[in-house]
User: Fold these one by one.
Assistant:
Number 1:
Amino acid sequence: MTDVTEIRWHARGGQGTMLAARTLARAAINQGKYAQGMPEFGPERMGAPIRAYNRVSDENFSLYCAVVNPRVVVVLDPTLIGPVDVIDGLTKDGVVIVNTAESPEKMKEKLNIENGKVFTVDATGISIKELGRPMPNTPILGALIKTVPLITLDALLDDIKHTFSEKFSPKVVEANINAIKKGYNEVKGAN
Amino acid sequence: MPRVAAMTGNNAVAESMRQINPDVVAAYPITPQTELSEEFAEFVANGKVDTEYVTVESEHSAMSACIGASAAGSRVLTATSSAGFALMWEMLPIASGTRTPVIMTVVNRAFSAPINIHCSHDDTMGGRDAGWIQLYSENSQEAYDNMIQAVRIGEDMSVRLPVMVAMDGFIISHAVERLELLDDESVKKFIGPYQSVNPLLDTKKPVTYGALALQDYYMESKWQQSAALLNSKAKILEVAAEYKKLTGRSYGLFENYKLDDAEVAIVIINSAAGVAKMVVDELREKGIKAGVLQPRVYRPFPHEEIREALKNIKAIAIMDRTDAFGAGGTPTFTEVTSALYGLTNPPKVINYVYGLGGRDIRVEDIHGVYQRLTEIAKTGKTGKMFEYLGVRK
């Protein structure tokens, strides 16, 4: 079977998850990889629990379905832990990255997982500081590629510079780049 | 030079439309096609194409405007989904009946009720007998490639028929993936300039479109149309061969995925076929001789070729993302079984409705189907022929 890294995102509508998943896929593809980035469109509304998925591989694959056994789970909103079984189907060598100011050890306890690693990053705190509003999607992307090196930081920043410049002012682009770098540098892990 | 891109299905089709640079587009936005028509409108607004974009008030008007523009003598594209497709219904056979080669992307979406914006093939399967050529696409790459080939096929002087290109709503239309794009010049060269036939705007040679033909000539008109659609198969293959030379990518009437020595097979279209092919790879590693037949050209339906490809398989599951309520099976089931009719020792067949309204079709679902097929192949006992896959009863 083709070796594909599968990622599942848990977030709430309005946190920029779709943008994050699509950005990751695009950056990976621009690095010569095969990748997918797709939202799971439910009854989409601000604040509702949503999921998004990524697949990244060095080989071509054709899995047009939801990720059920993720190797990586990204939790953009820690209040979803509990109401949503975010680690459902997580592989044994799995990685969970949570947007929280709490320690990874505490999160590991809260998630109640035996196998797998837990990482935390205060993505909301970073985004408030850098962007002036809670948009944890870009800082957590930085944390994600640090813990799971699917693409280089430079590749991600290149993509952000390129695509965000089409939509946002140079100030916003710069703020997002700083947010990604901080997410990359500030993520903490517990084995 | 071809280039690698990261795009959604909607982006990919919009990009193909930019490269085709049609004379006229008349479209009305509808989920999940909306992004596509918005993106093309942006190309028009930014002067990236020379297209006249007609912003109509409904899909009925969109298709009417497309037919009119095509009859006037222009290359015409449009796109829709679900209810939009249904609203076009009256005009669909008029496009094929007037032999106006309109090219339309249909981003497959379920029909209401209950209201659902996700993928079923209700729209294009419902319109399969409207006299259009139908091409189905597994992913963004195939949707892009089918669009470019569709222009050549539909506009060919031996064909002159409208073509619809289908891809799965959300699953493909909204997922970013990797694909290869041609450069603008290669697309322009491949499709060539538009050749009009009896254009309405040629005032020196006035013609009538949509004339009355009653008991005297209506049947002859339909017979010609029927022959044109059946004969388009050869042109579709010819265009595919030429496209392969340009891109290296192979297209046929259907994809034969490891069928040649297969004992069990699934017949399935669009994105779910991708999942089935990944499952076949897994099964082959375990020594199970499984295969997939993935129809691409659904109209004209390649009966003889499909019979040839399936005749030695022991058990086949024919799966559709739509139901033909009250019929003797789903659309693809009745097509395939009719293709198999007359074989002395025909394969055992079962029929599944799957994935309605975007219900996820997973690797383990497909494994389950192959497991049942293996059992049927062993015992020769089919059991229940028609089932809804994974439904809560």
Note: Chain B touches chain A through 31 residues (CB under 8 Å).
Number 2:
Amino acid sequence: MDVRSQISMVFHLDKCIGCHTCSIACKNTWTDRKGAEYMWWNNVETKPGTGYPTKWEDQSIYKGGWEKDSHFLKLKGAGKVKGLKNIFHNPNMPEMDDYYEPWTYDYSKLFDAPESKDQPTARPVSLVTGKPMQVKGGPNWDDDLSGTPDYARQDVNLKNITQAEQEAMFQLEQMTMHYLPRICNHCLNPSCVASCPSGAIYKRGEDGIVLVNQNKCRGWRMCITACPYKKTYYNWNTGKSEKCILCFPRLETGQTPACMHTCVGRIRYLGVMLYDADMIKTAAISNESDLVTNQMEIYLDPLSPAVIKAAKENGISDDTLEAAQKSPVYKFVKEWGLALPLHPEFRTIPNLFYVPPLLPTMGKVEDGNYHNSAKELFGGIENTRLPISYMASLFSARNEEIIKDVLKKLMAVRWFRRDETVGDQNKEQLEDILKEVGVTREVADDIYRLTSLPTVKERYVIPPAHREEALEMIEDSGDVKGNTGFGFHHKPTRGL
Amino acid sequence: MYNDFIFIGLPYAALFLFVVGSVIRYRTKPFSVSSLSSQLLESRILYWGSHAFHIGIVTLFFGHLIGFLFPKSVISFTGHPTRLLIIEISALAFGLLSLFGIVTLIYRRLAFERLKNITSKMDIVVYVLILTQVISGLWIAYFDRWGSAWFAVSLAPYLKSIFLFSPKYEAVAAMPLSIKLHITSAFIFVGMVPFTRLMHFLVYPFVYIIRAYQFVIWNWDRKTRRSSTDFNRGVKARNN
């Protein structure tokens, strides 16, 4: 057993209101720079939808992630042979138009325009060329289904559901959607790290954050292809790749990442997960239907004496162990089994988990009226508006049983709360339901509390970074007067 | 005097700049070392331009290198007319390939508004240098042909004498202007490496071939960098 610690996250999709506040917080903090304008380290997508960059989930286009080749894993579109062969031109790399061309507006025209019969307008100006441009798309152009056949109908996951289900899904009165906020998954088997020819991308041992060393990156851009979530971006100005850093300067000082801190719906949870690094390989190589189950095996119980002993032997501090024991992520993912990884079939073992949405799933329309309470509790799950197979395509590598289990548990908690607050439910039936999903009344109450009433400190359990011992988590930081504190004492200007 | 400058002064200045400049840039401004790829902004034409140019120029570089390192073997190999012809034709073909590549790349820079914006002055210098080098090379290949044979006899000793710090340029000084131009611009090219994006070929990632796929860095020991599989090497973590 090789115990390590990882900062992991849970996003509760039922609570996401799709306000994009997280995206804006991230943009203003990190990517409001020349060359980075088009990057959204945090973005919010509408599902069904094509996402950002367009159709990122379709690995037949972008060749991201790993694929199983009998008994070993290989990178789909990168790796030692392909990486060095494609170094002059990477055939599977998205272009700027797959993301969007960033723009601003010529606001000064509103003030400077000479007097005329027409109102002055601020024309869109490209942030790449500096010339006026026609805006064709943006990072959230598929927001709220967008109402055209270009977005929801083009969702890559639709190929995993039947034609009849698709038709039912897109009938106007059946139309449904949910939001999917995405950041870097800080994977346990990161394909960006594996694909980097320069060895610039690495996983930080202490907390598992995946970072790009800007001084080592040479712009070979294999990571752009290799990340199946398209969460590494190429800065066209500096010629370096960049990605979500999980706000490590904030984490190291005990603050939550900007996207989480600003989350209006309070959908985000962050905490430590202890995992067994020896088991990564077995989990990553397992059969598609077992991927989620085997990934869950990697994460260790922070209260088990054997795990604590092994963790201490590996130098994990008591503070971190304590944080792991309080981790809301561990509760959602392991204890309650409510949160699932996004697209586990990419085999990168992502550390960002989603509680699948119950609400758009359960709602039904009958005789023109909207019903949200199914007569038969679990009968509703089979006849969902958002088909189970669609959810399974997103969160469980098409294993529908896993999704059903989660939705049943979420539904049971709702019935439990109905019983608590209104008390009009059949008590015996409720007991049966709770028994069937394997949740006691106490656990159901815990789930409810952490879902609906958590304090900031319950949502975000950040272990101390121990900078006093590690000196600094990153090289060179703070040792030069006037530097930025992130290991840089040169302006990040484009090379000659 | 003039020859002293072109065939002794310039080469040493160029080599000095190349070695010292590259080391200084790599060590003090590592952030500036990048391929500066513009594929994100334009990909389709880059496919043809970049492949043609790089395959052509890299092959020609190694051709020149072999001629310089093993002149005797090259002379004996090209002694047979058929083999000489094959080498000449393939060298010409790779020359034309790189010419096609560089012309495509220059066209691409000019045709796309997005690329104009990120083209620096040094990029223009690089284009001029490469174009001079490729065109003069092709000129030599056509008008002063059988270079694969005479290079080993006349130019390889000159280059060798430079590296042995006893430069002898008599043979070179007697050569036609095209060859002098090719040599001069080659040394300027070498000297310009640390001042341009040409630096990127010095950081070609050979190490990737032998390194483990996954990379984990523990900050408590900066010197120890381990792969995820060999956890027990080095010192154990003191803190998390």
Note: The CA atoms of residues 130 and 196 of chain B lie 12 Å apart.
